[in-house]
Amino acid sequence: QKEVEQDPGPLSVPEGAIVSLNCTYSNSAFQYFMWYRQYSRKGPELLMYTYSSGNKEDGRFTAQVDKSSKYISLFIRDSQPSDSATYLCAMKGFNKFYFGSGTKLNVKP
Amino acid sequence: DADVTQTPRNRITKTGKRIMLECSQTKGHDRMYWYRQDPGLGLRLIYYSFDVKDINKGEISDGYSVSRQAQAKFSLSLESAIPNQTALYFCATSDPSGGENQPQHFGDGTRLSIL
What we know:
heterodimer, A: six-stranded mixed β-sheet, 58% strand, B: four-stranded antiparallel β-sheet
């Protein structure tokens, strides 16, 4: 079983839709959670990070962590074509980062 | 200018050749990492370095070696390239001065094809 599971998609939505991206994890020791956005032919770009359970909001993006269920989510409100990218979740263990395989998102104009 | 710069951006080479991928950073971070990315497998850690005198193997270090020439430079070598090392390679940095759990920052990658 992988440490971090993420649905690869692709996920296709119309412009303006609310997008929900999710990851599950198996190691209850993970305490630190991140979301990265990766455009084609570019490196992962940090979007959000959080230490605790609950919600963290930054503009149109909301990161949600549920440690009891070992489940994290990224919500994108009012999605735009420029949000079309692959989204990677990541978690920090002892001296190491664990990444999901990424969900490809396509926002159609 | 990019904070984490990788060269070359693309490379095609033949089986058995020695290849070096280079990474330099202007962020002043002590920690540097090399990952490879394959479709469906995500990012896998090859090597990491917490300072110039510290080198550690990651989960898939076989067939690779690294050199930390300075705080700002971290190179990855494939001594004798094989086709299953065809992948997208990323360098990343992190700064522990703000705490152990600071996020990583990535370069734009090297697309490596081995024929």
